[in-house]
Amino acid sequence: MKMNMKKNSSIWSIFSHADGFDIFLMIMGFLGAAGDGISIPLMTYITAKLMNNIGAQNASIFEYFTEVVNQNALGFCYLACGQCVACFLEGYCWTRTAERQASRLRTSYLKAVLRQDVGYFDLHVTSTADVIASVSSDSLVIQDVISQKVGQSCFFQFL
């Protein structure tokens, strides 16, 4: 009797179809997620700074008050521009690398299925639609994990 030992897999196995450009996209997506995640505490900091300046003793002086509000408004504008770039990088890079890796996964999965003996299809597969549905659903799950879940987990690490 032959025992089948199941190989332990890790989270890194979902990135097994990544090439050099995909690694670059993942690094840029990680940096975008980090920038997106750190923007929320920065927004809280700027808001707290604005509230402290409004309650300061010099707040009754109109010129001082206007200058302080303008500085904080400028900080919010810079933060919004940076967050826009970070969100774009996060979304675009993770989605693009997920599409590329899922495409390579579909190709290798289909090649592995087509290498099977004809008897395999007689015993295990009822129709060719089952093979196509299996390839599509499995690759879409992997693509969803890479494009959304990994980017969101990076975002929440920096929140």
Walk me through this protein's architecture.
The protein is mainly α. It has one domain: ABC transporter type 1, transmembrane domain (ABC transporter transmembrane region fold, Up-down Bundle), CATH 1.20.1560. 79% of the residues lie in helices and 0% in strands. The chain has four helices and no strands. Helix 1 runs parallel beside helix 4 and helix 2 packs antiparallel against helix 4. The longest helix is centred in the middle third of the chain and has 53 residues. The chain starts with 19 loop residues before the first helix and ends with a helix. The relative contact order is 0.15. Keywords: Glycoprotein, Membrane, Repeat, Transmembrane, Transmembrane helix, Transport. Belongs to the ABC transporter superfamily. ABCB family. Multidrug resistance exporter (TC 3.A.1.201) subfamily. InterPro entries: ABC1_TM_dom (IPR011527), ABC1_TM_sf (IPR036640). One of its GO terms (molecular function) is ATP binding.
Concise structural overview:
79% of the residues lie in helices and 0% in strands. It is mainly α and 159 residues long. It has one domain (20-157): ABC transporter transmembrane region fold (Up-down Bundle), CATH 1.20.1560.10.
